[in-house]
Write a structure and sequence with these properties.
Oligomer: single chain
Order of helices and strands: EHEEHHEHEHEHEH
Strand order of the largest sheet: 5-4-1-6-7
Number of strands: 7
Structural class: alpha/beta
Largest sheet: 5 strands, parallel
Strand content: 5-15%
């Protein structure tokens, strides 16, 4: 990472990639269905025809299996690749994804296959502490993009000078996703790319 360049830190699931679309197809092959009833993953997994969502532990098992075997099959979010490629000459780009360690090879291959050969860091938990450590390595301006307010709030707390943006890629999730005045919500990647560029200039 070059210390004098701006730094842009980007999430994968529902930011760079259409996670819910890919995960929904994955669980359908295992006999389950994904319903868009709330902004919560495991409480949206059902057996067909069931009135109650799948047990959370069973949902976690499907989630872990998806990241072991299927997370390389998701589609990029519309406009994401083009927007990052426009930012690439202007900033260092790091991909920060909360995903199991088993996903590293598939997720790294996915980034390269879609023209996003950026450094990938897998983590877990709130993203503020690790973002703060990364931001400390640059003298440039910084920006952070995620779909989850918990991660955005964490970054705002630990790295208050970092510009934060919320993006929710899946059209079906957008009406369900909570918003916050602390973090601009920009769901179109063309507009988001311009906002990021303005924030790091």
């Amino acid at each position: 990472m070059t210390r004098d360049r701006p730094l842009v830190i980007v999430d994968v699931d529902e930011v760079l990639g259409l996670f819910m679309l890919g995960f929904g197809a994955f669980i359908a092959r295992h006999g389950y269905e994904l319903r868009f009833e709330r902004f919560a993953l495991f409480q949206n997994i059902y057996r067909p025809g069931a009135a109650e969502h799948l047990d959370l532990a069973e949902g976690r098992t499907l989630f872990d299996e998806f990241f072991r075997t299927g997370c390389g099959e998701i589609e990029p979010a519309p406009g994401a690749v083009a927007a990052l490629n426009r930012l690439k000459p202007k900033a260092e780009i790091l991909i920060l994804s909360n995903a199991p360690a088993e996903a590293e090879r598939l997720r790294g291959d996915w980034l390269k296959r879609h023209g996003l050969p950026h450094a990938l860091i897998l983590s877990s938990g709130p993203k503020g502490p690790i973002t703060s450590a990364l931001v400390a390595q640059t003298r440039g301006k910084t920006a952070f993009i995620d779909d989850l307010l918990s991660n955005l709030d964490s970054v705002a707390e630990h790295s208050p000078a970092t510009a934060t943006f919320q993006h929710v890629a899946d059209l079906r999730l957008r009406p369900l996703a909570p918003r916050s005045e602390r973090h601009p919500r920009i769901d179109d990647w063309a507009d988001l790319g311009e906002a990021i560029e303005a924030a790091i200039s």
